[in-house]
Amino acid sequence: MSVFLVVATVVAQICTLRVLTALFLGYMGFTWVHDWYRLRHIPGPFWSRWSIFWVIRDLYKGTYINKLDELHAQYGPLVCIGPGWVSLSDPNEIRRIHQVRSPWGRGPAYEGLRLGPGVDASASVIDKQKHHQIRSKLEPGYYGKGVTQVHQQVDERIMKMVRIIHDDYTPEKNSQCHGKHLNLSELIHYLLVDTTSSLAFGRSFGCLDRQEDFHEFIETSVKKLPIFIAISASPIVQAIMKQPMLKVVMDWVGLLGPIALIAKKAAAERFGAEKITQQDMLGAFVAHGISQEELETETVVQLIAGSETTMTGILNTMLCLLTAPDAYRKLQSEIDEAIRSGKIRSFPASESEAKSLPYLQAVIKEGLRLLPPAGYIPKGCGHDSEVCGLRVPANVNVDISVKSAVRDKAIYGEDADVFRPERWLEVTGTKLFLMDETWRIIFGGPSRWECLGKGLALTQINKVYIELFRQFNFTIVNRGQPFQARGSRTWIITDFIVAVRARD
Ligand code: HEM
Ligand SMILES: *[C@@H]1O[C@H](CO)[C@@H](O)[C@H](O)[C@H]1NC(C)=O
Ligand SMILES: *[C@@H]1O[C@H](CO)[C@@H](O)[C@H](O)[C@H]1NC(C)=O
Fold this sequence. Notes:
Elements: H1 2-39, H2 53-61, H3 64-75, E1 78-82, E2 85-88, H4 91-98, E3 104-106, H5 128-143, H6 147-169, E4 182-183, H7 184-201, H8 207-210, H9 217-232, H10 235-241, H11 253-256, H12 258-269, H13 281-287, H14 292-322, H15 325-340, H16 351-355, H17 358-370, E5 379-381, E6 385-387, E7 390-392, E8 397-400, H18 402-405, H19 409-412, H20 423-426, H21 429-439, H22 454-471, E9 472-476, E10 484-487, E11 491-494, E12 497-502
Parallel strand pairs: 2-8
Antiparallel strand pairs: 1-2, 3-5, 4-12, 6-7, 9-12, 10-11
């Protein structure tokens, strides 16, 4: 009898297992066919019909941004890149999706960008109402209150950087550094991490003073961010991040280590019985109702969103200038002339002084245009809609190939792939308006998701350029490969080595 029972149980279990396996496989098969069927009319490579693996791999390898650009060149402005994913490159359609009253929002893939399960921040929250609430607490800090303090912080760091270049890298000043080359990507990284940390946490990491990667933030972002970004595209990770209950299990401290602890400490100082009240960016966030928990994540977001991007803008523009001698000379003489005529009086130059130099403004726009620092995150729509004349089903991730959009030949001319700042000075009226509006896509604008740090990024880029060109001349050392760049959602630029000479 008992033998019979055991045999029966085993048989039943095998059957249950089989039934479960069959159900599971059936479900997977159904989802796959369903995904394939929904997107079968959208052009795209063969592999995109099967798996999202390719997207994850290219995000990890840092080949994603260029891959999207190549796919658009081959398949047109709307391309299927994976089950439930398409990519869009048409600037007019991107601007339409961005419109204020558009039904489009952030796509399902944003779930994966949370710093931990259920931890929402401005950059990851999908719900429009919640996003609006977080933004309204942050905007006064980013745009208004405490701006004088922001400029002081930026100026102080730029002066430090200039002093380091003078003392350690120019043979004119210090005969011992003959032949010593400057790791420009490293120094600019120190500059931005120092400024952004002083704004985000109320105290600077002090990388410039130590001339080292304090708290290993740079190391962390170079090594861990690609992993974080890549797995965020996985539907499994997105499902996990949706669950606030898993928060206890997966504390985001694990992901970012010491940085998360600094953020916690900095936020704690602004709350509680002995809180510090200060007229700075953090102070403005707190004054407008941010909670301690929100502050902890927003400061980390600020550090990640603000340093790598601005750095890419500065370094790529520098590379463009170093490989276009005419533009280099033109910019340097515009700056020299402005100093001679008294247009620039401050040191470091103020932002309004910088903005009065038309060629500098054109150089900055053109440098950001050729390598948009942030390839951003997919948008989505709750119902079926039409994009580029094709039907896009509800809740598909529509990724945006910013790089392809801002090299559109109909908008920027046949030589759109070339660094030519003059293009911004040759046109007026609607033509210029269209170029400008398309350029705003680089910062996620014009839209309700436009970058909060845009003003801050442009302030820094403007000031850095005037001081670098006022005081030094630069030459590329490795002509074959001036720098290494990996691009997934943002770029990581390393090993930009230059030789420096002090000017008069
Ligand atoms: C050249 C430099 C920069 C570029 C190109 C850039 C680009 C972008 C883009 C494209 C987005 C929209 C992402 C999306 O939702 O699809 C964004 C959002 C954001 N950026 Fe930037 N960014 C830059 C610098 C900065 C800086 C310096 C900070 C702060 C210190 C910053 C903070 C943010 C924040 C907080 C958001 C989220 C805004 C929201 O969710 O509404 N960014 N940025
Ligand atoms: C430049 O600095 C980066 C970051 O600190 C470092 O990883 C790299 O090895 C340096 N490159 C050279 C050639 O010194
Ligand atoms: C700096 O570069 C400019 C433009 O190439 C050149 O005219 C000038 O002589 C250089 N100055 C020094 C000190 O190298």
